[in-house]
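Office hours follow-up: a student asked to see two folded examples consecutively, so here they are.
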Amino acid sequence: MNRVLFSGFCLIQVCFLVAGDPDPADIDKIFSQWDKPNSPGCAVGVVRDGKFIFKKGYGMANLEYGLPNSPDSVFRIASTSKQFAAMAMALLAEEGKVSLDDDIRKHLPEMPEYERPVTIRQLIHHNSGIRDYLTLMSMSGLRDNDWYSDEDVMNMLARQKGLNFKPGEEHLYSNSGYFLLSQIILRVSGQTLRQYAHEKIFKPLGMSHTHFHDDHSEIVPKRASGYRPTENGFQISMTTLEMCGDGGVFTTVEDLLKWDANFYNNQLGKGGPALIEQVLTPGKLNNGEVLTYAFGLTVRNDRGLKLVEHGGSFVGYRAEMIRYPEKKFSVIVLCNLGSMNPSQLAGEVADLYLADAFEAPVEKNASSQKAYQADPASFQRYAGHYYRVDDHSILNIVVKDQKLYRTMANRPDEELLPVSEWDVRYASRDLHIAFQRNAGGTVTGFRLLSDSFNLDRPYQKFTPYQAEKKDYEAVTGKYYCPELDVTYSLVLGEEGLELQMPGSSNVALASQIKGEYHGPYGIRVVVNPSGDGLLIHAGRVKNLAFVRK
């Protein structure tokens, strides 16, 4: 790439260099493994003071026709869409057509009447307790490549007599909340979310290549196809689902520049900073605890700088948009390959530009973190089995090749780095384990913490229960769930108990706690003491009751 040193203007890509900025080649290195004519990739934009200082496409938007990615390629941005749905609801409230503290049943009367009302505000902040519809539909036997409608989702949610938790008591990410926002907007305004967002957000900001995609058969000019990796290359990974709110926005790096600029000089609604202040204000739990989740955006501290961000992940698309408002600096990474990690990639780009602005830069390379030199012989005192006190999910800490790792079912191992005698950190993430001990100095549990996120999860050490064949035989049979309108079976497999679910192969279950059986994907089966039913938990869905047939 030829560049004029005094201006830094490049013809192949946009990059305006100032003293202290990284060489564009350093950004190219971050994305080099995808910048090939036979690979999907991404489009990248780096923004400072409302203007691009770097933008470029890497890899291909369409492998069949050999079309490269570019800053004007149109990507599905999955959950990064949530900030647009939340803004639409904030605008509807500014118009006086709804109150964010309305009981959702005022607008969606078919939803069950729970012990406590669920409010629109709780949908926005993910503390409503309403179960995640994508998980529910999957548990009913449907998959991402199956088609179902908004009406089907509403019917499923209307059957949910139970919640994950009482409204406002906890925070658990749920796509249902943002899907329900789209339904409330439709019923209150008479417009679909696509129509309302176009009129109130995208058109005023000049985002001419952005829309909520509510018709899967619609032709989208310059669309980047979604892909997933296979042993022999890549496979198309798209969806026919048309739900909007929790996802569904199609947009470009170019258009997201205009959205980013509006956070500094709001042109939406009545104008002015009040709307922006509202959508950047995190929610609260009933006990007053302040969350990091605001209106479709996470607001937190990153090494001394305020960070506003939200990622997205669905089928063959991945997206991330991060903003450091104190520096008027943002990074946009939109990808069309399901194995890419745009959050990590955007962070690496930001580190190149803001290295001197962070209070305490975090080393990316685990091997370079040498703040505390622990004796590997002491690692065994941490090893053991731990369950999370609130939901009994299990993780293990093991020693392998004189290194410490966290292991969990169906997830890659993660190295743990000691930072003091009784504290370890995840090598690749901002997570911290503080071990707890009894009077004799034996580890009894730990707290899983984060310096950046509002996270404090207690884990207790335990001795796994050794289940026998008679334990499995006692619970085999068929179980019906009226909330899913589906029947599951517990059967004896070659190596133990297995869960038969419609639409999937059998799931192997292991018992480490008496009366409980754990499987991959966060599945936990809890047998009623009477033996007449089960409670099944699966990540963003808790407390689904099954009755034994």
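And the second, which I mentioned at the end of office hours:
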Amino acid sequence: MTASPRIFKIEQTLKPRWGWIEWVVFLGLAGLIYLGVRLSIGAPAVIPGGQLNLAPGMLPYYALLSLGRMLLAYGLSLSFALSYGTLAASSRRAEQVLLPVLDVLQSIPILSFLPVVFLSFSALLPEHLAMELAAIVLIFTSQAWNLVFSWYQSLTTIPKELREASVVFQFSPWLRLKTLELPFGAIGLIWNSMMSWAGGWFFLMAAEIFTAGARDFHLPGLGAYLQEAANRGDLSAIGWGVGTLILMIVILDQLMWRPLLTWSDRFKLELVEGKVPPRSWFYQIWRHSRLMRVVRSWAAPWGRRLDDGLIRRFPGVRDREEGRERRPWVLYGVGAAVAGGLGFAAFKGGLMLVAVTPGEWGEVIWGLMATWVRVATALILAVAWTVPVGVAIGTNPGLAAWLQPLVQITASIPATALFPVITLVALSLPGGLNLAAIVLMLLGTQWYLLFNVIAGASAIPQDLKDTAALLQLNRWQRWRTLMLPALFPYIITGAITASGGAWNASIVAEYSEFGGKVFTTTGIGALIATATATNNYPLLLAATLAMVAMVSAINRLVWRRLYRLAEERFRME
């Protein structure tokens, strides 16, 4: 049977160089940053910061505000991931455009772009609305990329016989999504959703309280509460804030994530049920409750109407092929106008880069090399411990029932709140702030790997495990022939997001200010933070674009090759 080219991608060897698409996106990004800088000039010169009440009684209110921002950002992230990943995986031509764009987008150091986002929004919108939107944008960028990569990895590793069956039965795009793609990618999406929430908590402190010269941005919320408590050195308030955060994480784990993981176990690609399937007390209560029966009876007819409507709205492949010749000239015109505007802005940004001195360019190059060494070190350390621990948790539901909530709590505690303590301890050790920077990068990015490894280990079919046991494979043979091949796509997904997160975290890892003192070390993150603090916009633009180019090149040369290897050789089929 010949697969439709609109469903299966043609396998090609990736060229280890930047294509024209990356250059277009890169120039467009330069233009956007320049536009943000120009808009920020019109922002109010002084924005007085609000005062937060550190009384414990305010914590429930602050926690609800932060939870609302997290929910909005997660809803946007999930919608973006499903649409973007599906489009990239459904067509080779779309993939050639969208993956380079994604490489550039996920490499943007949002913490360096944060002041520009805040200031440009405040120049266009009322102050409070601008701050809320900027905070949601920052949290979105910490949640979206690993969801996109996870969904794309799931779609490109679906067994070919299942894809061919969907073609034989002429499934419409909606039926294929509902009956094949979402079930196959459910486990990875849920674990990466948990990671997205952990990443959102990590950046919540930066999103809700930010200072840029005489402009002081404060949003009431749990992140701002923790940041303010850390700035005042109020250990009691820090304890109350961290305790509230842990309580929220436990409640979300028991009422949302654990039931979803239990429900998703039915979608494992296996012929034999797992020996100890995951359990959730809330899932069992909800599943057998009278309210659930009422909801099912009410939702059934609406579900059928939704199916019928979406099948008519999104017909099968053959129906779509008939309308292929229509040209969306309006979209082409809008795209050309946007491209022209971004091109002009990129030209103006290039003129701004002329102000960067040769000495500053040397600092940028040296900083890139120093940060790259720290990122590589943090990534190697993360892989060394997350793979064995993730396999232990993912293959042992009894152990997962105890450790998974603990892992989620630990991953969600903002490492930036602990960084002053880490820095003070590291300064007395060999390596000093270099060691502290690696530790903070590790704390902020290792969880991307761990959650993906757990998802991969959980998705290994029980019949393959039983076969390995029947063949009496020793531990090394089991790892070489079963575990590592099955985990490879998940490790790559976790590594690429962890790498991008480590580069982003370098901005707070290499430059910190507390106790009236500034602690800094050589690195591109420190250079970006210094340029932000001194309003040196040409250097900020140069350092940000240099980091984006570095991360995008690594993605192109390393991670994209490994993605292709995972797609070609390590399918569950």
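Two things to take away from it. The beta strands are 209-212, 215-218, 511-514, 517-520. The first helix runs from residue 20 to 40.
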